[in-house]
TrEMBL record, chains A, B, C, D:
Gene3D superfamilies: 3.40.50.450. GO terms for cellular component: cytosol. It comes from the Bacteria. SUPFAM superfamilies: MCP/YpsA-like. This is TIGR00725 family protein.
Length: 155, 155, 155, 155
């Protein structure tokens, strides 16, 4: 089963929420499992979108219980490891789609690239070098459909 | 969704494998998700039993990739955290069912009890105090059906 | 530098506290670093013993800050990973000395044995198989001096 | 004891190595412990600098053993958790100093900011928003001395 991690902030802009919901829906339609952090904002929107079409969603939670998790998860994995769980989310996807920007989200993006995993980004923060030139390694999408396409997982 | 972690050795006795497969099957029939370590032996048997009746199985892997995982998982979560992932398996179940004995298995049992999670054991190692008296806190089952019943999760 | 992890309950019996303090002192005298969980009971006693002779003590904390740590640590490493940090303590020692029994302590003992690390125990819980026979793999000491000797690290 | 995490790439430019060594030395002189990832490049340079003046250095290793660690560590903590250990390094410092850029380094920077920890950066990658404006939250230094000063830990 194809697995895609969808990452983004809990405090998310409306456009990011809408994009995440659509990405979740598209992944669910294609039979891919959505992995996410399991709480609100972009995480919840991706979960809601996938579950709306019967898709499978796994929330890898930072907390030690299922408390506070979005109800749109199929399975919740409480890790009790705090933000170290971001490393698990970064590893668990065949690709990682990032929607919007926050420090937690950036850590997932960076950990995924550290692993060599494909990262596709829709909105959010960018990484540049000291001279302001883009650091290579992230694929930028302009729409949810393009984000899935850029993962290279969906023919 | 009810979630039950099933723990046991990779190098498992035939009786433990048979018990784990039956426990997986019974959990799948009751609509509970099986969480396991995702590799061979008891882990694979529980996964196989659950998937044989269409149940959902999540493997929380110690390795950083899906390599070496049993094919009977619905979703694999590679953690790259080695045996620290045992703490995740111990947290992720509403109850933990232990089948057979090994040091890794015992760590999961102990971590689950540390969290206050219900642990039911079918075969395997026992913990006694310095005077040889059983340490309280684990429920012992004589059969797969009794193991599920002793979790208290299935009316 | 030789590193020895000393594990035991936060709620510890007076004899266990005294043993842990003496083990810490002996390790400090021999120039070995003490690794422990960093909170009260056996952990604090081992730290206090080592620091009383100028020894180095590292507390690997379950919490995300240094809050609640014993003051006898040289360095505190807050992990924010809850009980998953027990796996780190189990890995960080060239040997693990266990003083007294609790579920958390047992998880450290089991994780250390899972790694193949030498475990020496002074008091506390024992592991037996289904027929009540001791499970091999732990060395039992009768005194702090013997505990150090059984690690095999001190000529 | 003040603890400062020093983060940077294993494959580091000569200027980053020189800066990290000087930062380690300055921290050691001020009696602060250096926390680092424990391998080569910036990590080793910071450890070497601190140890050259008798400072204390803790390496929080991604691997499950002390293999491959720089010899300039006082204590090595093998975590066996892969890059999830970056979250521990980000938590363990009263401040985090970043020298140079890489995906692993960026994950530590982001995790530290996610925790609210002060991050000072000397060289390396920058984070900007979609319009190219700097994302606030990181303090930029032009020299090792300024990096220490910007942590706010050294009067």
């Amino acid at each position: 089963m194809i697995q895609v991690s969808v990452c983004g902030p809990r405090e998310a802009a409306p456009q990011d929420v809408a994009n995440a919901r659509e990405i979740g829906r598209l992944l669910g339609e294609r039979g891919a499992a959505v992995i996410c952090g399991g709480y609100g904002g972009v995480m919840e929107a991706a979960a809601e979108g996938a579950s709306s079409v019967g898709g499978l969603v796994v929330g890898v939670l930072s907390g030690p219980t299922r408390g506070g998790a979005t109800p749109y998860l199929t399975v919740a994995i409480p890790t009790g490891m705090g933000e170290a769980r971001n490393a698990v989310i970064a590893l668990a996807g065949d690709a990682v789609i990032v929607v919007g920007g926050s420090w937690g989200t950036l850590s997932e993006l960076a950990l995924a690239r550290r692993n060599g995993t494909v990262v596709v980004q829709l909105g959010g923060w960018r990484v540049v070098d000291e001279k302001g030139r883009p650091v290579e390694g992230v694929r930028y999408a302009d729409s949810p459909v393009e984000a899935l396409w850029l993962t290279g997982l969906f023919g």
